[in-house]
Amino acid sequence: MMNLFEIPFTVLLTLAVWFMAGKMVIIPAMVLLSYLLVFVIFYPIVSRQTEETGVTSSRRYNMIIDTIHKLPSILTSGEPKIWLDEFRLASGAASMATLGGQCKHPSSKCCLILFS
Asked: Whole-prediction pTM value?
């Protein structure tokens, strides 16, 4: 992807092609416009999926850290199955977000398909 430092040089190169080759400047101009179109179309999609992946992954890692601190009480209370079900849902949501799935909430049952 083109960064801000490359834009002036791209304009200068396009002007140089126009100066030396005239109508041949249409080819690099069309390539630049196609890159811009692809960026405008895909940036919001990639941005949203990246945010969802980050949120679900951090939720899963927070659950792991909480488990490490609360492991003795989870084991003595006899509720490891409840914790395992919650962790399965959180892991499934993180996996679905990474893969671009439709699992929007960690309590969604579609996440169980991955780990059943």
From this structure: 0.52
Q: Which long-range contacts (CB under 8 A, 24 or more apart) does 106-114 make?
A: 106/56, 106/59, 112/88
Length of the chain: 116
CB of 87 within 8 A of CB of 63?
Answer: yes
pLDDT tens-place string over residues 54-89: 888 888 788 788 778 877 877 777 777 777 788 788
Element counts in the chain: helices (H) and strands (E): 4, 0
Both tokens of 41, joined, read 């179309």
Residues with Cβ within 8 Å of 2's Cβ and at least 6 positions away in sequence, in order, are 10, 35
DSSP code at position 102: S
Nearest to 113 by CA among 93, 84, 99, 86: 93
Unique residue bearing structure tokens 């005239």: 22
